[in-house]
Specification:
Elements: E1 2-6, H1 12-21, E2 25-29, H2 33-40, E3 45-46, H3 50-56, E4 59-62, H4 67-75, H5 80-83, E5 89-92, H6 98-101
Parallel strand pairs: 1-2, 1-4, 2-3, 4-5
Length: 102
């Protein structure tokens, strides 16, 4: 399965590493490309925006610092919503507010 992962910081990098270790093809995005380098070295694909992550995957995970970041990645310009198909699954693993998730 081709899986997207956005947010490769302290929490996200561990989750993404486990997905990659399990054999999933990863498409990754982070504000810092350097954070993605270990994944790219193992075959992950770099996406230039959250939209590009969604366009290339069936499932997308996010692990971001604050609710405003999740909202921007999901709904902002070049956000996930612009690239998602009706059957794309989106899982936000961030510490988030109930209001943002709804």
């Amino acid at each position: 399965m081709r899986v997207g992962f956005i947010g490769l910081g302290m929490m996200g990098k561990g989750m993404a590493a486990n997905l990659q270790k399990a054999g999933h093809d990863l498409v990754v995005y982070d504000l810092s490309r350097a954070a993605a380098e270990p994944f790219l070295a193992k075959g992950a694909v770099w996406a230039g925006s959250p939209k590009q992550v969604a366009e290339q995957t069936e499932v997308v995970f996010t692990s971001l610092p604050v609710p405003a970041d999740v909202e921007q990645v999901a709904l902002g310009p070049n956000g996930l919503i612009e690239g998602m198909r009706p059957d794309t699954a989106f899982f936000d693993m961030s510490t988030n507010s109930v209001a943002t998730v709804r």
